[in-house]
Amino acid sequence: MKIFSAAQTRDWDAYSIAQTSIRSIDLMERAAEACTRWLLARYGADTPFHLFCGKGNNGGDGLAIARLLHARGRRVAVSVLENGKDGSFDFEENRRRLAQAGVPLQAVGPGLAWPLLSAETVVVDALFGTGLKGPLQGAAADVVRFLNGHGRAIISIDLPSGLDADASSAGGPVIRAAHTLTFGAPKTGQLLQESGAFVGLLHVLDIGLSPAFAAQTPADYEFVDEALARSRFRPRQPFAHKGTYGHALLLAGGYGKMGAAVMAALACLRGGAGLLTCHSPRCGYPVLQTTVPEAMFLPDDSEEQLTTLPADLDRYTAIGIGPGIGTSTETTGMLKACLESARRPLVLDADALNILARNPGLLPLLPEGSILTPHPKEFDRLFGAHASDFDRVTTARAQAAALQCIILLKGHHTFIATPAGPGYFNSTGNAGMAKGGSGDVLTGLLTALLAQGYAPTDAALLAVWLHGKAGDIAVEKQSYESLLPTDLVAQLGAAFRCLYPVPFP
Ligand SMILES: NC(=O)C1=CN([C@@H]2O[C@H](COP(=O)(O)OP(=O)(O)OC[C@H]3O[C@@H](n4cnc5c(N)ncnc54)[C@H](O)[C@@H]3O)[C@@H](O)[C@H]2O)[C@@H](O)CC1
Ligand SMILES: Nc1ncnc2c1ncn2[C@@H]1O[C@H](COP(=O)(O)OP(=O)(O)O)[C@@H](O)[C@H]1O
Ligand SMILES: [K+]
Is the peptide bond before 503 cis (omega within 30 degrees of 0)? Predict the structure, then answer.
């Protein structure tokens, strides 16, 4: 699914109106119906709703939602942020329809008393959407502060009001929503870590915008959804043997950090690698051989850290390096030797990235197509401090092109920068995955996909989607609190099965 800017979203609306002969007001009604269905499915008959509307089309959506909720017998109150001007054409039409339905409007703004909101009230934020120009000030900022300070659950329509779809909103007043219901496709501003406190959980609602426009309009970013993941997935061949799916090598683990190697190894095998060798410090021998009997073990000369490379790296079809390895001088030497001798793309994570950050001279040695998996702190250590996540995305794209590598900037919607083409944001995953070890699972999975011959971009897109999907399946059986990275490993099979063509094979 493509991710469009606010301007492109407006064009998408206009194109849909022109090409499908649906009127603008009817498209707004469709958007309001989709939101109303979502609200009715989530909240019981006793829940009162208070809609806060601006005077643009986002406010028009809010008025239409109020009318539809009222028609279903729900208690609704509506406040309009007054600016003394006429509303948009569709806002005014919905104002007339709401008055006909007998729902009163109250004004909020300078000099007016704030409405009372009971403890059970759900607030619907329809103040500003994609038409926002600059940070909110004056009365608009006051309403946002009033609502954020009130402690009621807020559902934002299209965008949390005050959030810019295309640029950083850091510092400006922005609604802090529990859920955001957005139309057609996500917007970049909703996907970045810095927006997390405003967007809450994001839901993309289909309102029947033109698929032709989406297909023919180039976009800077794409959303890695099930369709995109399926398009990259290659089913296993019936006559396959273990050699068909590659020999992965994991350089992982250290004294006290053998768990990282175990999780990466399990994920690599569950990710489909035909053979796996783990090269780890000697102390890891009993650990790995007991917990992952399917993997072969190559001991390092050192008891506690990685200091040497296995002979003949060309034997391996993919190499993953980093989980739990530490950053000692000896391990740095081992990584340097690996970069100098590897002739295939590598997966680099965790301490391998920290070593690169301390030794930037090693970066040009990265084999083309290598995959780097920094979280934001590791990213800043590698490429310098950044003021916003928008800036990180820009740097990730520039560095991916300069290094001819793939950079996964990990987060709730992991960003995937490739050397050419669009950037990608992942759609799967949840807060249960915020636990040490989730990244090790991703490294193992990436290594497995590279070992099986997936091109690096395909491996990256498929791995982040499967990793998050496994988390989404696992959290259904667990909870956000109790989810373990090993639960992700256990559900990788179920995640893969979502991609199987029907009938299969
Ligand atoms: N046919 C369409 O175009 C559709 C539009 N839809 C809705 O329409 C929204 C976009 O509507 P609009 O383009 O009218 O824009 P908005 O309603 O998002 O915002 C425009 C209004 O906000 C005011 N405004 C903008 N920036 C401000 C600032 N910094 N401080 C104070 N006031 C500010 C403008 O003066 C104007 O009144 C979408 O987000 C979506 O909710 C949906 O109904 C789907 C269909
Ligand atoms: N709130 C979240 N929503 C979705 N995915 C998450 C969330 N928190 C963590 N993850 C995922 O879990 C992984 C964590 O990786 P990382 O920060 O390197 O942790 P570790 O220390 O376990 O290696 C990443 O792939 C990230 O995308
Ligand atoms: K809004």
Answer: yes
